[in-house]
Specification:
- This protein is of the alpha+beta class and about 400 residues long.
- It contains eight helices and 20 strands.
- The strands form four sheets. Strands 1, 3, 5, 7, 9, 10 and 11 form a seven-stranded mixed β-sheet that branches. Strands 16-15-14-17-18-19-20 form a seven-stranded mixed β-sheet.
- A hairpin with a 2-residue loop joins β19 and β20.
- α1 runs antiparallel to α2 and α5 packs antiparallel against α6.
- The longest helix is centred in the N-terminal third of the chain and has 28 residues.
């Protein structure tokens, strides 16, 4: 329990004035005033201790996994016992970098005759990843403001996950087409044997067309003979996979998010065509790899990305710590792999990485959201009418 020194001094001043009033001006009236002042404090302190002992609470979320743009409702329920009113109860709903709210106010209440009281606040999900929300603490205070007791309970804070968006990649984008069209097909092929393409990607067998399948995968000649639409079903191997790696930078929070979603949008093109993709991304404080061969794998990756926990740098860090934390983090690229590195900005670190990979025989390209560059291996990510585009 904490004591408010300023309020205590003010209270002692009132008591002293009451005593002087009793001694020098009006004895009976001053005595009554002193009794009321002291008794009021004792009663207020007793109610505080009773509230501390009997108050219960719970936090409820409207949902704990949501999409960007969804509204999250956080609800705090306070319950008391008996007919005695509670002391002052103060609390404030906490947010995180992933959520925004129109209001920042704190709440103060007293529960009287009824047994419980509920307060709620709504937040809008603006970024994807993992975060926490709820109530940081509940503060109980006596009516005089002299004593306060803080209730810090882990159950008041709840974890949330927010899905990233998967934007559409513009059908006019030549960079996306150059990656997804790397496999060469031969419409004269009617068998289900494996046939190597010019880029070393294995061949295919056939299956029935499903709405949403890439039209480029339709074998028109075989479909005409069979009387139904048939698409090629690819069976990838390590040599035929496209590699995507996602860098991150705590200093460029929004750009890191945009780069990640642009990568997912490009992976969607591969998943629709059933082209294999290997993804290297930083999740749960570790670099991990994910294999994506179809839409189902992509949806699993999208869920895994709700563990993305890149946050702006804290102002409490020392200058040396901030300089170290501001460095973009890159995964290790397997030797001999061709791939695309998605990064928030282009800087000297990314340039040096591309040069080193090239010297080692790895011809990686980069897709970035910002920064100045002249390297022909780097493409800028931007929005074009709501669709993702990459510079030429």
């Amino acid at each position: 329990m904490k004591i408010n020194i300023k309020s205590l001094l003010a209270y002692l001043f009132i008591v002293a004035v009451s005593v002087l009033f009793m001694l020098f001006l009006d004895g009976p009236g001053g005595t009554y005033l002193v009794i009321v002042t002291v008794a009021g404090l004792l009663i207020s302190l007793g109610i505080l201790l009773w509230t501390k002992r009997t108050l219960s609470f719970s936090v409820k979320l409207s949902e704990d996994v949501l999409n960007k743009g969804d509204v999250l409702r956080v609800e705090l329920t306070l319950r008391k016992q008996g007919i005695i009113p509670t002391s002052l109860i103060k609390f404030c709903f906490s947010d995180c970098m992933l959520l925004i709210s129109d209001t920042k106010e704190s709440y103060t209440t007293i529960i009287f005759g009824h047994d419980e009281e509920t307060a709620e606040k709504c937040f809008k999900a603006c970024f994807f990843g993992s975060g926490r929300t709820g109530v940081d603490k509940i503060v109980l205070s006596d009516y005089f403001g002299l004593f306060r007791y803080e209730i810090i309970d882990r159950s008041l804070i709840r974890n949330i996950r927010i899905y990233p968006d998967i934007p559409e990649v513009s059908g006019k984008d030549s960079f996306a087409r150059s990656l997804t069209d790397a496999v060469a097909f031969d419409d004269n092929e009617e068998t289900t044997r494996a046939a190597d393409s010019i880029c070393g990607t294995p061949g295919y067998e056939h299956r029935k067309y499903n709405p949403g399948d890439n039209l480029k995968l339709i074998n028109w000649k075989l479909s005409a003979k069979r009387g139904e639409l048939l698409v090629r079903k690819l069976e990838g191997t390590g040599n035929g996979e496209q590699l995507f790696a996602l860098a991150f930078d705590n200093f460029h929070f929004a750009e890191s998010q945009f780069a990640a979603e642009a990568m997912l949008g490009l992976i969607m093109n591969f998943a629709k065509a059933e082209l294999p993709v290997r993804v290297i991304v930083f999740l749960d404080n570790n670099w991990i790899e994910r294999e994506v061969n179809n839409i189902s794998d992509l949806q699993q990756l999208r869920y895994d990305m709700t563990s993305y926990n890149i946050f702006p740098l804290s102002s409490s860090l020392s200058p040396e710590e901030r300089r170290e934390a501001r460095k973009m983090k890159y995964p290790d690229i397997p030797d001999g792999e061709n791939g695309v590195i998605f990064a928030p900005v282009y800087n000297e670190t990314l340039s040096a990485l591309l040069e080193r990979l090239l010297a080692e025989g790895t011809e990686c390209q980069a897709a970035v959201c910002g920064g100045e560059f002249t390297d022909d291996r780097v493409r800028r990510i931007f929005l074009d009418g709501g669709n993702v585009r990459f510079s030429e």
